[in-house]
Structure to design on (167 residues):
């Protein structure tokens, strides 16, 4: 019988988590909308993983989450992969060297990640719409809604990290 290490088990659970969140995020009308916007579940899920796994592993999971977003969006393939890679690497670095990994930190970084990803999307679309319309009507509702679901991912990933130790 094959015995998987704790790290391998964690990474498998994180991969399944990302896939389930992908299905939830891209199923039409499954989640209620907040001021006409849906949450960026995959981005905040990847940030939560990066908070517990650090910079390098978080970077790879961020890229995987971004590529899943790319598969379900009209952006060029790899755009969200690159954006989430940078966001998750930065969040992992901040938690490793500057911040403590607590719920408040995850809320702050989840909000910042949603703002950065939304702003990157706005820039990619050409920034053609008025920025004074984009911020209060699209960016802020999306970021607030994404931040509201961040505790679910934080506590789930903390449970995974505390139960599956690295061997």
């Amino acid at each position: 019988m094959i015995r998987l290490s704790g790290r391998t088990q964690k990474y498998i659970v994180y991969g399944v988590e990302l896939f389930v969140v992908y299905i939830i995020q891209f199923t039409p009308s499954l989640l209620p909308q907040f001021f006409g916007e849906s949450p960026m579940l995959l981005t905040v899920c990847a940030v939560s993983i990066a908070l517990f796994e650090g910079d390098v592993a978080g970077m790879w999971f961020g890229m995987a989450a971004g590529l899943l977003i790319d598969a379900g969006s009209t952006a060029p393939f790899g755009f969200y992969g690159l954006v989430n890679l940078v966001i998750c690497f930065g969040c992992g670095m901040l938690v490793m060297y500057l911040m403590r990994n607590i719920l408040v930190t995850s809320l702050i970084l989840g909000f910042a990640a949603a703002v950065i990803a939304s702003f990157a999307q706005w820039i990619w679309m050409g920034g053609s719409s008025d920025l004074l319309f984009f911020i209060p009507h699209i960016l802020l509702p999306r970021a607030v809604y994404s931040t509201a679901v961040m505790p679910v991912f934080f506590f789930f990933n903390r449970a995974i990290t505390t139960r599956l130790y690295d061997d």
